[in-house]
Amino acid sequence: MAISPREFPAKRRAIPTAAPPSRRINSGADVNLLRSLLLVAREISDSAPLNFPPQKRNSGSIARKTRLLSLLFEELAHSERSQDSVPPSALICLNEILLVLQRIKAMLDQVSGNGCSRFWLLVQTEQVSNAFHEAELDLGTLLDILPMRDLDLGEDVLDQVSLVKNQCRRSTLFVDPVDDALRSEVANLIKEIEREIVPNRSRLRSLFDRVGIRDSRGCRDEIKALESEIQNQVSDKSTATIAALAGLVQYSKCVLYGASTPRSSSSTAAAASTSKSTTHSAAPIDLSIPSDFRCPISLELMRDPVVVATGQTYDRTSIGRWIEAGHDTCPKTGQTLSHTALTPNRALKSLIAKWCREMHIPFDSTDITGAGGVRTGTAGNCKAAMEATRMTAQFLVERLREEAPLAPEAANRVVHELRALAKTGSENRAWIAEAGAVSLLVPLLDSDNPGLQTNAVTALLNLSILEENKMRIMEAEGGIEAVVRVLESGATWEGRENAAATLMSLSAANVCRKRIWREPRVVAGLVELLRTGPPSSKRDALAAILNLAGEREAVGMLVGGGAVGAALAAAADEGFDSVEEAVAVVAALAKRGGASAIAATAGAVETLVGVLNCGTERARECAAAALVSVCRRGRSPASAELAATPGIQQMIFDLLGSGTPRARLKAAALLQICHRWAIACRTVAYAPHSAMAVS
User: Fold this and answer.
1) Is residue 4's pLDDT more than 70?
2) 586 lies in a domain?
């Protein structure tokens, strides 16, 4: 953290000018006071000099004055006199001096700490200089009223204190011309970016050299510091300024020092779910977002969760776009929406906000940052930040155009940067696609380099979250075919998983779904991933299958391709944490024509009853819906198996009493099915006896 209003107040602290009546002072407290003064003074004196220009003179000046004062504190702390001989007025002044020294120490820590943003410190050079100046004036005032003659000090100590007092008295506000010139240059660069003028490369290099940022790692640290600093701001103007600075540093990092080296396959695989899921979120790259906090449509952290008619929760923006596009079904369950009213989920929003605070992630839309610089809310209100990000996207796409045919490793670094940039913000995704990235990424899906293939398919996944980009990917020559090849035989599980997630994202749009399910090997690839992949891959495969099941014409192909058996197997797996999605797939297939196939699948009713008995609320609802469809359309064997299940009526009554409104309706239908079956059985059993009586 660099500068905060709390540490650099606009008004100076009031200094006592007279001592209160004499009183006894606790000698133990006096000893601790003197030791604290000596300790803080030594820490300030030993502060390492700043390794970059801002505040070098001011921080050095105040450190030298404190070093001279440490002689006074050392003399007092090591004196053999009784502490009771120190006058109360002196103790009060010494206590105030300790507060000023602690303030100085905090300022020095802020301007020289590892988490300090150098550019933000430059922008605030006048305010910070004023804070140092006021601290010196406060120190001088306290030394003026400190009763030095009553402390019985040596002449050499008195001379040193007098020297410091005189220096503080003559202190004037000093704003270093070098700092001010750098600040002006940064301000001019930001103004040029606002006017869409691309910064000169040599000018950028000169600026960054003088600021002390000379490599890609330094730029990443600076961006991280700016993202941290933005959370402390209350002023929209300051927030916009930091957004612009982050955009400038992000662009300069790519232009001056090239794309960052991607992480190893193992580390990227560990963060695969995060790569798909954040953001709006601005979470750090390796942070795992709880699945309940992610929007099922955008895979991003929900900022404004709302509940639709089926009881599912989505982010308001994503579900709003879904409904505006003409959809009348729930994206996650495939059920028809009885109405389009959106109910705020305030309880979930409160939990998400609490989690964001604990994880130090900005939650309000006005202060969200991300891997590609500062974005939505912040960047949206700052033209310089938006233009800097657009320039970054254009530069990276041009680099990819140059590097892709020649050097896979160099291309991999660029694609990794594009992947990170596309991970956050609709604007970023639009600018990358508009610059022509899609047509360059598609051929890389067939790369022999596992890292390049994985980064390319993940970049396409992140781009596909934007509605406009879905058609760009669908219309790219060989785009869907290449994604399917990665799905079937990608070099890494992460790549195959993200290929499935890409198909899921694309199939959320009606026009794309109609084409995707007709693509040869799509269903086979998804079913194979569902059967053999790790849990995270199975979740993405289920999500894609569920979307395809929304197309009635695709159900036959899904059933014929083994989707029923694979989904039932996933639902029966007690160690699988996405049973809800698996049962939702079965329910969707049963509703749209696959009921007979499900009824004919061995163990189908048993698996669904098991979920009905022990599943989550939503899983039980989907299991009930699937059983109703199977028993009504799958004829008597399924109904007989259901009715013969021990304890089935109690399960149904439990669902009637505690399920969602839709679950209760399905439970009532199941109860009716069981009663009709029981009546039919009695009728069949009674019929022979009736015939014998007549004869």
Assistant:
1) no
2) no
